[in-house]
Amino acid sequence: MSASIPSPEYIKIHHAHRQFMTPEGGIINALDNISLSIAQSEFITLLGPSGCGKTTLLKIIAGFEELDSGDILLDGQSIIQQPAHKRPVNTVFQSYALFPHMTVGDNVGYGLDIAKVNKVERNQRVAEALTMVGLSGIEQRLPSQLSGGQQQRVALARAIINRPKLLLLDEPLSALDKNLRLQMQLELKNLQTELGICFIFVTHDQEEALTMSDQIVVLNSGKIDQIGTPDEIYHTPKTEFVARFIGESNILSGMVISKSENGVNIDCNGCTIFSHDQTLKLGEEVKLLLRPEHLSLTPNELEGPQAQLTMTLNQTVFVGSDYQLHGELSNGLPFSALTRKTNTPLIKGQQLTLYYQVDALHTIPAKQKSIKGHI
Ligand SMILES: Nc1ncnc2c1ncn2[C@@H]1O[C@H](COP(=O)(O)OP(=O)(O)OP(=O)(O)O)[C@@H](O)[C@H]1O
């Protein structure tokens, strides 16, 4: 028997629109006519700042909230008329939401008890689900006898036991401390791969999104700014909003002032930056993105062709093996760079020559639109 091919459009969110009235009588477009497709067995993250619409979208998929217009299709079938408990979808919340008076076994087996699955199969599936989340043999404990990380694993076991087609995760790791959070990020990704089902994960933590996701959807005021792999979102952001939201960035506004066969010179208020982007036109206004790791005090730390600019140093921050340099360019604009530890003293007010990796310079059109996109 041949394995089935995962559908690239397993979940389709089609022109989803949802408004809310504010207490002051205003209208908020929590979801502003968004469309996207999600492949089967994909780990997708909805990422964006507070209030951008992440939870609203998750609640609509789960059936806890309704659309004003648009549709949600799962495997070709619209699910928006189905009540939440009939959808093949489960949700894991930040707060775990375990029943405190019930044992771990009863919490995990709850959905099977409701579905009247026989005791032997039920106990076997509870044990399997707990093993999958790395907690075998703790069926008799109460939630209060577990750590936060263990409680979140129990919540996960409960959510996967009835084999949903889709798992929704609403900031499930945000109550955990940093180390546990990093460990659980990897565990969640492994669990998703093992189960082979689609996970839709909500977070406002960009590092978490970059670590775990196959695809990231960046939401900005109810609209999608970009859909892409972590690599695409980090290295080739389509909008200034995405560039600023993901990772450390230096963003400069400029205009193309000259072109040659090697590239273009862009004037950023008196500071000239060289780019290899031959698609830029003379006179075009652009935003330039330079990540701190693509800048250095010593040219041989960088790969490929380099150019240079001058920065006046305001502050040096030691971050492990590197220094973060904060200062301003000759045009007075703030600028940051990351550089390896150096024997040269770094003194406040000093003028530094910074080398940048020309190929890593990313240009964004000055005028951008949000997308109604498809993966
Ligand atoms: N029931 C509601 N009534 C009125 N406004 C709402 C309601 N639910 C959400 N909103 C508004 O819709 C917008 C999107 O909210 P949503 O909770 O989806 O954002 P979010 O990205 O999940 O934010 P957070 O990260 O803070 O949870 C916000 O402006 C919010 O205030």
From TrEMBL:
<comment type="subunit">
    <text>The complex is composed of two ATP-binding proteins (PotA), two transmembrane proteins (PotB and PotC) and a solute-binding protein (PotD).</text>
</comment>
<dbReference type="GO" id="GO:0016887">
    <property type="term" value="F:ATP hydrolysis activity"/>
</dbReference>
<keyword id="KW-0067">ATP-binding</keyword>
<comment type="similarity">
    <text>Belongs to the ABC transporter superfamily. Spermidine/putrescine importer (TC 3.A.1.11.1) family.</text>
</comment>
<dbReference type="GO" id="GO:0015847">
    <property type="term" value="P:putrescine transport"/>
</dbReference>
<dbReference type="InterPro" id="IPR013611">
    <property type="entry name" value="Transp-assoc_OB_typ2"/>
</dbReference>
<dbReference type="InterPro" id="IPR008995">
    <property type="entry name" value="Mo/tungstate-bd_C_term_dom"/>
</dbReference>
<keyword id="KW-1003">Cell membrane</keyword>
<dbReference type="InterPro" id="IPR017871">
    <property type="entry name" value="ABC_transporter-like_CS"/>
</dbReference>
<protein>
    <recommendedName>
        <fullName>Spermidine/putrescine import ATP-binding protein PotA</fullName>
        <ecNumber>7.6.2.11</ecNumber>
    </recommendedName>
</protein>
<keyword id="KW-1278">Translocase</keyword>
<keyword id="KW-0547">Nucleotide-binding</keyword>
<dbReference type="InterPro" id="IPR003439">
    <property type="entry name" value="ABC_transporter-like_ATP-bd"/>
</dbReference>
<dbReference type="GO" id="GO:0043190">
    <property type="term" value="C:ATP-binding cassette (ABC) transporter complex"/>
</dbReference>
<feature type="domain" description="ABC transporter">
    <location>
        <begin position="11"/>
        <end position="246"/>
    </location>
</feature>
<dbReference type="GO" id="GO:0015417">
    <property type="term" value="F:ABC-type polyamine transporter activity"/>
</dbReference>
<keyword id="KW-0813">Transport</keyword>
<dbReference type="Pfam" id="PF00005">
    <property type="entry name" value="ABC_tran"/>
</dbReference>
<dbReference type="InterPro" id="IPR003593">
    <property type="entry name" value="AAA+_ATPase"/>
</dbReference>
<dbReference type="InterPro" id="IPR027417">
    <property type="entry name" value="P-loop_NTPase"/>
</dbReference>
<dbReference type="InterPro" id="IPR005893">
    <property type="entry name" value="PotA-like"/>
</dbReference>
<comment type="function">
    <text>Part of the ABC transporter complex PotABCD involved in spermidine/putrescine import. Responsible for energy coupling to the transport system.</text>
</comment>
<dbReference type="Pfam" id="PF08402">
    <property type="entry name" value="TOBE_2"/>
</dbReference>
<dbReference type="GO" id="GO:0005524">
    <property type="term" value="F:ATP binding"/>
</dbReference>
<keyword id="KW-0472">Membrane</keyword>
<dbReference type="InterPro" id="IPR050093">
    <property type="entry name" value="ABC_SmlMolc_Importer"/>
</dbReference>
